[in-house]
Amino acid sequence: MMQNAPTLRRSVLYVPASSDKALAKLASLSCDVVVVDLEDAVAPDRKEVARQKLAGILGDRPAGVREMVVRINALSSEWGADDLAAAIACRPDGILLPKVETPRDVLEAGDVLDEADVPGTLRLWAMIETPRAVLNIGAIAELGRDVASRLSCLVAGTNDLVAMTGVKATPDRRYLMPWLMQMVLAARAGGIDILDGVSNDFRDLDAFSADCAQALAMGFDGKTLIHPAQIDPAEAAFSPSGEALAEARKIVTAFTLPENAGKGAIALDGRMVELLHRAQAERLLAKAAMIAK
Ligand SMILES: CC(C)(COP(=O)(O)OP(=O)(O)OC[C@H]1O[C@@H](n2cnc3c(N)ncnc32)[C@H](O)[C@@H]1OP(=O)(O)O)[C@@H](O)C(=O)NCCC(=O)NCCSC(=O)C[C@H](O)C(=O)O
Ligand SMILES: [Mg+2]
């Protein structure tokens, strides 16, 4: 199974709900998604204040942003239930659940949304950042096949995964790689998006571009970001290149030729091209059209 309708989640910027300076900056930024964070970016003694700011933040949506998502604290924490109620009241496009460990964690949040009669357009996102989440990733992602579950996107939480497992965080991410690839595979099976974790070294943009290129090659749909300087390189990496678009157009056109009518596989420039390649090409062109809008 391939993904549902294409989405644009190339650049997904966390903004601490407690940082007036970062929030003020939002109006001048253009990224695909903003995640207003109530969790790790907010110190325990600022949680209440941060939550009270939500309505103002969501009410002042930056023009260039496609989706506004709120990351709440875990429902098992002392702040989770109040965060969820506050987020629901603000009607963001999505609510990001941290420290998800089982499908039940997603379904519980969905039940709260259903009980509050929240339209299905408010989607749930889930952080995959604990050892149990990685072990349960297939079952969690499978929820994506059931629209009623609202699950739309998984987000790798590599900082927590490194902290909880004790693996060494190397620039090439060699010890995280098996778990990250498992996340990509599971997301594809569930037909939902999967975003790469953050790169902490926000001043080294060359290293960041390399991280993005690696994430793209691994199959991620986009990258989560911690700093505005990371937006442009992420969007450059996750936007289809001119060359890829030209190739996609060539494939789509080739299948419309009379000599290829009714064929499942054709020859193009000495290569075999199948209908699955046409579907891939159409998806790429649809993404480019979304970017152009
Ligand atoms: C990391 C930072 C604390 C650095 O901030 P700062 O020292 O202020 O950086 P700069 O001076 O270079 O900032 C330049 C201007 O940009 C604004 N800014 C910085 N970061 C953001 C942001 N995320 N969103 C919006 N605007 C931002 C500054 O205010 C400056 O503005 P101005 O002076 O007016 O020009 C900081 O970048 C930061 O707090 N980043 C976000 C941290 C965060 O959200 N962390 C939690 C999410 S990551 C995570 O949890 C990972 C996951 O769960 C896992 O387990 O892996
Ligand atoms: Mg985390």
From TrEMBL:
GO-annotated biological processes: oxaloacetate metabolic process
PANTHER family recorded: CITRATE LYASE SUBUNIT BETA, LYASE BETA SUBUNIT, PUTATIVE (AFU_ORTHOLOGUE AFUA_4G13030)-RELATED
Classification lineage: Bacteria, Pseudomonadati, Pseudomonadota, Alphaproteobacteria, Hyphomicrobiales
Similarity comment text for this entry: Belongs to the HpcH/HpaI aldolase family.
Name of the protein described by the UniProt record: Citrate lyase subunit beta/citryl-CoA lyase
Keyword annotations from UniProtKB, A to Z: Lyase, Magnesium, Metal-binding
GO molecular function, one term: magnesium ion binding
Taxonomy, superkingdom: Bacteria
Record InterPro entries: Aldolase/citrate-lyase_domain, Citrate_lyase_beta/mcl1/mcl2, Pyrv/PenolPyrv_kinase-like_dom, Pyrv_kinase-like_dom_sf
